[in-house]
Structure of ECF subfamily RNA polymerase sigma-24 subunit:
Amino acid sequence: MISRSRPSTGPGSPWDGEFARYFGERAHSLRSTAFLLCGDWHQAEDLTQAALLKLYLAWPRLSRHDALDAYARKVVLRTFLAEHRRSRWKRERLTDTPPELPAAPAASGRDELVRQALAVLAPKQRAVLVLRYFEDLSVEETAKALGCSTGTVKSQASRGLATLRNRLGPHYGALSFSAPTERR
């Protein structure tokens, strides 16, 4: 995917316009994917920005612009998984003043139910379910995006769906899994 033939330059490079067009067309979709992974719009925005920065830095070296969507999605996934691994080691700092909490987004009851159910899954299971059922990727495409085998995708999807069934109980059958709508 990455070719070393084109040199990297700073701002004002000839491909800035090309990246800006891609950013405008795909940022919302990547942000929605990030939201499904982390369950918080602010964190999703941070994940998307970090992933797009990595994509921008690699842009001059990308040899196949026809596969950008899959590559960008993989960068978002890897950024999410790396952040999750790092956050396990971060400790909360106690202060004498509570943090200001943002107002809860106006989501439908069903969207909130799905978001809460996804939040209890392990990050890898959540990533598999988001790619398979929200991004509508095949088992093979999901395995490629996550850098694992198709068997791992199948087992993680099976375990994740079983957890969702247990967590959601009778509500599970009534849910249709679709991409989230962003709050404005």
Observations:
- Residues 2-9, 102-106 have pLDDT under 50 and may be disordered.
- Residues 16-87 form a domain with the Rna Polymerase Sigma Factor; Chain: A fold (CATH 1.10.1740).
- The two ends are 35 Å apart (CA to CA).
